[in-house]
Amino acid sequence: MKISLKGLQAVRGDWSLSVEGVFTEGIHLVSGDVGSGKSTLALVLAGLLAPSSGTVEREGIASAMMVFQFPEFHITGRDLESECRAWDVDPANILSAAGLAGRKTASPHELSRGELKRLVLACVLARDYDLLVLDEPFSSLDCTEKERLCSSLSGRRKGITIIFTHEQACFPRVHRIWEISGGMLHDRGRLPSAIGRWDHAPAVVKNLIAQGKVPENISQADLLEAACRT
Amino acid sequence: MQDIRLRAGAAALLSLAAFTSITGAAVVFIWWLIFSRPLLVLTKMRMVIPAIVLIAFFGLVLELTGGGGISYSLRMIVIILIGAWVYAGYRQGEFLKLGTWLFGRKTGFDLGLVAEMGMQSLEMMVSDFSTIRQAQELKGKHVGLRSIVPAGSILIHGALRRADETAELMAMRGYTNGGSYCPVFETPVRDVIAGIAALCMGIIAFIPVSEFFILYH
Fold first, then answer.
1. If you ran DSSP here, which 8-state letter would residue A217 be given?
2. pTM of the model
3. B38 to chain A nearest CA, in Å?
4. What b-and-e string marks burial along A28-62, b requiring 16 or more CB atoms within 10 Å of the CB?
């Protein structure tokens, strides 16, 4: 199972993004500044946007899903129960997991953006997609929910999961780090060696590296383990 | 047309002329072909062709059931083309200019501001609609009546929320009503020619064709 991007270019007016790389099974983190082209690349990978040039080859991918930054775009149901059914998941389990138990008759539009994001993510993560593209999955979530999402994502064993984010506090355990800068996608490699090459690394990670305590991965538990290392 | 005063005036006159009669629609269509840069308008406004097809379909149904449908369709299609021309030439801030010029710095400014916010919202809705369609496709919901209702609901809720947020922000920044804006307009010669031509088309549309022949003889 893999996605190969060959000589790919996305062009919009004066702005362009060049991409070359292969996304294999596992969890990939793509970081970059706001406006660097993360969402554009996410759309290309999900097959929702045709690149200006180059090719996207998918191998062994039978099902794909993308979660947009703003969860309201995903709404199709009149109430939370029908919304869950539209995702083909069990409403009782999902509403409970999203902290929305007892609100199955509520309209999705009544929820705050954070609540709606929790619901959409719970629906998506309850299913096994071969390719899962998440555009800024941590936005609109509080720290507790970010942590909960990170442990769900870290637990994904199958398929290709690609997380596009400029998050600086919470991360799941990832297999590979990529960065978008200067109009190009850069492959920083597998963990843990990728951490040292990660320009957009959060300050806490950079401080740990400066102290010679390179973490094994970038989850809270890994950072804590590195920080407590003697 | 760069001058919004001429563009809005011409659009109002031409729409009225096109709606009045088939002759009016014909002369307005000729004006549209000459002055609106049709190819640019049609490539920029991709919803024009589907809208025309929809109007033509309803016109045909009307013609078959009660008559008058073809005349109605043709007149409405020309009005849509004029609307597309106005929208394609829109530049941010020009309705604020027009409102202030027409009705002054209090009521005019407010009306212009509302129009500007409406245009901004419309642009966002077009962009949001495309994302909603992508999200629905991912969920296996294909284009149809069943998918249009939730999409419309998302768009309306989004527009209302944005309007609410904008109003709160403006109130926090001390806005009550009116402004101190001094609009400045640019009127190239081409705009003046197009404006005079629109006026001529309006006169032709409102004066019966037979009157021309009487004057000629």
1. S
2. 0.81
3. 23
4. bbbbbeeebbbbbbbbbbbbbbebeeeebebeeee
Do B157 and A68 make contact, defined as CB atoms within 8 angstroms?
Answer: no
**In degrees, to the nearest 5, what angle opens at C-alpha A73 toward C-alphas A67 and A76?**
105
CB contact under 8 A, B138 and A65: yes
Domains and their CATH numbers in chain A: 2-63+128-227 (3.40.50.300)
Q: What is the ipTM of this complex?
A: 0.85
Average pLDDT, chain A: 93
Closest CA to B52 of B28, B88, B76: B76
- How far is the alpha carbon of B167 from chain A, nearest alpha carbon, in Å? 19
Of A64, A68, A86, the CB nearest to B131: A68
Q: Are A198 and A177 in contact (CB under 8 A)?
A: yes
H/E element, B180: none
Yes or no, beta carbons of A76 and B153 under 8 Å apart: no
B 114-133 residues with CB < 8 A to A: 128, 131-132
| Chain B residue with Cα closest to A46 | B138
Instruction: Determine, for residues B135 and A74 on separate chains, whether the beta-carbon distance falls below 8 Å.
Output: yes
CA distance B44 to chain A (A): 15
B142 — pLDDT class (breaks 50, 70, 90) = confident
pLDDT digits (tens, 9 = 90+) for B32-86: 999 999 999 998 888 899 899 999 999 999 999 888 899 999 999 999 999 999 9
Phi, psi (5° rounding) for residue A27? Answer: -105, 125
- Backbone φ, ψ for residue B129 (5° rounding): -60, -40
Please give the structure tokens belonging to residue A134.
């998440």
